[in-house]
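INTERNAL AUDIT FORM
Audit reference: QA-55
Scope: verify that the stored structure record matches its stored sequence.
Auditor: D.O.
Record contents follow.
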Amino acid sequence: MSVDDLDLEKFAKVLQLTDSSHDGEVLNSIKLANQMLKKAGLTFQDIVARREADTSVTAMRTEFLRRMHQLVQKHQAEQETMKEEHRKEVDYLNRRIVWWREKSAHLNDESHQEEILKLNRKVDWWRHKYQYLLERAEQEKAELAATMTKRINYWKSKANGSLLGFQSKNPAA
């Protein structure tokens, strides 16, 4: 049995009765709480341990999500920088191509044509590089999402007690 086998809402209501000014109600609520724990195969220590673990898991999960958010922001900033670098380089190369075309329009010089071809190849190279980097960034984003999903599922399983050993310490249950 585990904490999940206990109706925590009902258990909390029963424990609230221990605050009564009537001794009989207090005693009966403690007895009922003990019966509920015994039926679920738990002890008060299991409940306290669960609460401590939930608090610890919540803190770790919050820290993990904060770090993942930072990684995502860093990744987005790197992508923006890459886009801006690509845009500047391609704009520069396109301006050079236009300049060479204008210069060679009235000259039929083969060296100018070669320069224009070189510049066109550079533009193509930058486009391919940009496409490759975008694809790589998307792949890294997908891997990061998969890692985040695995870790979130891990923390969920810890929060549910399946990895923290909240199984019954009462073999009779």
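Auditor finding: record pair retrieved intact. DSSP finds four helices and no strands in the chain.
Action required: none
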